[in-house]
Prior knowledge:
Number of domains: 2
Distance between the termini: 12 Å
Number of helices: 8
Largest sheet: 9 strands, mixed
Bound molecules: pyridoxal-5'-phosphate
CATH topology of the largest domain: D-amino Acid Aminotransferase, Chain A, domain 1
CATH superfamily of the largest domain: Aminotransferase class 4, branched-chain amino acid transferase, N-terminal domain
CATH architecture of the largest domain: 2-Layer Sandwich
Amino acid sequence: MNERMASPITIERTQSPKPRPQASSLGFGKYYTDHMFIMEYEASKGWHTPRIVPYQPISLDPSSKVFHYGQTVFEGLKAYRTDDGRVLLFRPQKNAERLNRSNERLSMPTLDEEIVLEGIKQLVKVDQDWIPNEPGTSLYIRPFVIATENALGVAPSQEYLFMIILSPVGMYYSNGMNPISIFVESKYVRAVEGGVGTAKTAGNYAASLKAQEEAAEQGCAQVLWLDGVHRKYIEEVGSMNVFFRIGDTVVTPALNGSFLAGITRDSVIRLLKHWNVPFEERAITIDEIVQAHRDGTLKEVFGTGTAAVISPVGELCWQGERMRIGDGTTGELSARIYDAVTGIQTGKVEDPFGWTVAVD
Length: 360
Ligand SMILES: *Cc1c(COP(=O)(O)O)cnc(C)c1O
């Protein structure tokens, strides 16, 4: 405790620690650790009283604005246990910055990024014996902000809660690193330029569930969104950005103001450049992808995101046609990127970019 004397964050430890789940039963987001971080905002006081307390339900008035107008944003990052017992975070500063960009878009108060980072680090430290270390496992960190003012008028809330909760997780998809089928959506749209697609906010997910359900009926795990205006430019997969290897060149949609700038996306781009892999960031139409598939030049497709890191795509379903990617198994480059990123995250390979931050 002594080296933390200067920190404004107080810690109240639980008197009744929970049993730890088996690594084999983790799944994604099923278990929560013993503690959580919480801090309030009032317009007159700003953010105040940051503290770590036992994990517990919170009580909210039914008129809290978050329930009615959806003013809420979140983040997702992971802590990893290295073989020599250290705990590493992956580019957490990027999450703190993006949280504030999301806050701004939703007219919510920004947070002191230092407090966000310190809150994450201290909470992870308090619950560090919850971090699993079997291959593919990690501690998922979910910071989020909700509007708590009790008022039904449509206007930015004057009160908020910022919280961080932790969940030990296994592989994101129940079938592990195996390629998934993806449904290319042509009926629903999720976000448009000028909307909230660039913010990590609940509404984007609420807007996507119907399409996700219908895709599941077709045996597809996720939806690939096309742009909402022309319905032809590729945007992103449900909770992941998307990359295509056409011939020897890797392409990903350029950020266009209607989908999320993923931190994994940025990391993959920097890795590809570091490896001198031909790479393009530009507008990509679904027609171009269908044509590349017909020509036999569409070699690999993969999604990128914190939860799954790299998710190979084995099949694209588009207008009744099921297009198999390569031989339907994990592509060679997808596997190389997965190994490199997870190697850096878990401290197994050198981190030439200075991406990892130790929790000590
Ligand atoms: C979180 C998220 C991603 C992935 O972002 P990462 O920073 O790589 O985890 C992609 N798309 C959406 C819609 C997301 O919410």
